Amino acid sequence: MFSTAFLDIPPLIGVGGTVVLPGSKSISNRVLLLSALSAGSTTLHDLLDSDDTRVMLDALRALGCGVRQSGSTVVIDGLAGQLGHRQAALFMGNAGTAIRPLTAALAVLGGDFELRGVPRMHERPIGDLVDALRQIGCHIDYLGQDGFPPLRIGQPRLTLEAPIRVRGDVSSQFLTALLMALPLVAATHDIVIEVVGELISRPYIEITLNLLARFGVRVVRDGWQRFTIPAASQFQSPGTLHVEADASSASYFIAAGAIATGARGLDLGVCQNYLRIEGVGADSIQGDIRFIQAAQMMGAQVQSGPNWLQVSRGSWPLKAIDLDCNHIPDAAMTLGLMALYAQGSTTLRNIASWRVKETDRIAAMACELRKLGATVEEGADFIRVTPPATAADWRAASIHTYDDHRMAMCFSLAAFNPAALPVRIVDPKCVAKTFPDYFEALFSLAQTSTSAIPVLCVDGPTASGKGTLAGVLAKTLGYHLLDSGSLYRITALAAAQAGLALEPAHEQAIADLIPALSIRFSQDQVFLNGLEVSEAIRTEEAGMKASQVSVLPKVRQALIALQHSFRQLPGLVADGRDMGTVIFPDAALKVFLTASADKRARRRYKQLISKGISATLLALRADLEARDARDTSRSIAPLRPAQDAQLLDNSDLTVEESVNLVLDWWQSKQLFSAI
């Protein structure tokens, strides 16, 4: 997952391949709570691992529920409707699918509970649910502003004879919360819920009813206004349940397939002509799967099977639509980005619920779409999007995400723009709410010109600190890292593991090993074929073996190709001695880092002493000066700054000061204004 402050996405040309989606948030949090309230143990497979589900799991543990977790499989030991702990302070983050049903369940069971969240959660309405629960004698107090969390829940005095009335026109989660909680107290007679006003987001209620039936509670529905929970209803574990992949998350890839599959790229030829999505199909119980129909109206070609979708571009440009989106409230946001690639104005109606989501999504979408060059009209419950008139009217934009996962994922689609402009996503880590690996999944499918992938090179002499600087820069930018100095050591290690002697007779065999090596750098860690080899390649013996390998011409040539392969989306920070001069001469920024021999010797001395290796400053300085002489005078790729490199003497700078200076240089080359 990207943990950077911002993520710059280069212009993307096409998509192709297969993506496996994470589990549905809506289903995951519902089945977690239902499992906890049921009698018996429930094994949940393919559960979403995200911020929202972790919040729910933490709450269930705090309430005395047994939770055993192994990867995406979780076993819940149910409480059979009896809480293990009747006093707890629960932090709910910004998870509406957690706080609302938990509020209802705890309110009818009773105890001493406090529910809080992040500041935005305290701005999201819960008053209609609280009003409904107070009708039946639940004790709920507001700890801040009336109508909003945080809440304190006490002991109820329940009266359940009269129908319970709840508004349906703000959020369907209020009705879902009641439907999931009231079976706990339906021992002697039917409980009736009546919806006041139009019920929005009905497909989410269908999910709730479907899952309640899986847990033994069959609610009788009279239209969308009256719901009856039969007397003697009781939650029973289904034993095992598989969580569908998230249909809302599928919308971003359906849109990408409609926009970018089959596109023709500069040095790509024709991109793969379809994108396959696994984990959810057209028979999904999730309402957002109806996004497929909206995408088809705009021109997408979509095929489906029991657990997969296949998407390709159809009509181009896409067709503008005018659509009531009440049935796909979350996925409809993706249509706002597809509208950028449509001919005419697209109007999305009946989306008032956007105003009370993780952010005011109507206002946020309008603001950020305008940054890209779109013309946007917004109302209380609609948004109308007219795309930039021509490619020249598109603008590179820094997109604020408002701590809203769907804003980040939607606006990544702007990188496919016809003007070939990059897009910056501020706070990309907010996708952790539902899809922690979203950007990794997107970049595994996306295709672009190699020259469009940015590279930042850090070259310099031994012990200049280039590895440390490059590692911090890569982490800050969310880019891949290439520690080129380790590659000969890794190659020597791989050759030894393959039983190959480091001599000319095995030169071709060693070179043939290199393309298949899986190498990953993470600041000061090095991984070979999934195993950490940091210490193994940093010994004196490893250095000597690296010298033996480096004199083999075919190995050197294979390593050049390997270094080029590290240039992957979204970008690369490469450190070495010839990154800017030989390997990546077209790099967007080249830094030549150095320090005085005395400073470098002192740094190396501290490093060796900390590892218990004896050394003297005088010998280290002499060795560094000798290495400098050899590196600058060698016939192949001598150590020298690239002509367009920024020179950085860090003799008197801290690592943080060096990083900030390089980031300032990097920002000055971007099309976005400073954050």
General description of the model:
By secondary structure, the chain is α/β, with parallel strands linked by helices. The chain has 3 domains: 6-22 and 245-450, Enolpyruvate transferase domain (UDP-n-acetylglucosamine1-carboxyvinyl-transferase, Chain), CATH 3.65.10; 25-242, UDP-n-acetylglucosamine1-carboxyvinyl-transferase, Chain, CATH 3.65.10; 452-668, 3-Layer(aba) Sandwich (Rossmann fold). Helix content is 34%, strand content 21%. The strands form 11 sheets. The protein has a 5-stranded parallel sheet, with helices on one face. It has a 4-stranded mixed sheet with strand order 3-18-20-19. Helix 1 packs parallel to helix 6 and helix 13 crosses helix 21 (655-668). It is elongated, with a radius of gyration of 29 Å. The model has no long low-confidence stretch (mean pLDDT 93).
List the helices and strands and how they pair.
Blueprint: E1 6-9, E2 14-15, E3 17-20, H1 25-37, E4 41-45, H2 51-62, E5 66-70, E6 73-77, E7 87-91, H3 96-109, E8 112-116, H4 127-135, E9 140-142, E10 151-153, E11 164-167, H5 173-181, E12 191-196, H6 202-214, E13 220-222, E14 226-229, E15 240-242, H7 247-260, E16 264-265, E17 269-270, E18 275-278, H8 291-298, E19 301-305, E20 308-312, E21 318-319, E22 322-324, H9 332-338, E23 342-343, E24 346-349, H10 361-371, E25 375-378, E26 382-386, E27 397-399, H11 405-412, E28 423-426, H12 438-445, E29 446-447, E30 455-459, H13 466-477, E31 480-483, H14 487-497, H15 507-513, E32 519-522, E33 525-528, E34 531-532, H16 540-550, H17 553-565, E35 572-576, H18 579-583, E36 589-594, H19 597-610, H20 617-633, E37 646-649, H21 655-668
Parallel strand pairs: 3-18, 4-15, 7-8, 11-12, 21-23, 22-24, 27-28, 30-35, 30-36, 31-35, 36-37
Antiparallel strand pairs: 1-28, 2-29, 4-6, 5-6, 8-10, 9-10, 12-14, 13-14, 16-17, 18-20, 19-20, 24-26, 25-26, 32-33, 33-34
Helix pairs in contact: 1-2, 1-3, 1-6, 2-3, 3-5, 5-6, 7-9, 9-11, 13-21, 14-16, 15-17, 19-20
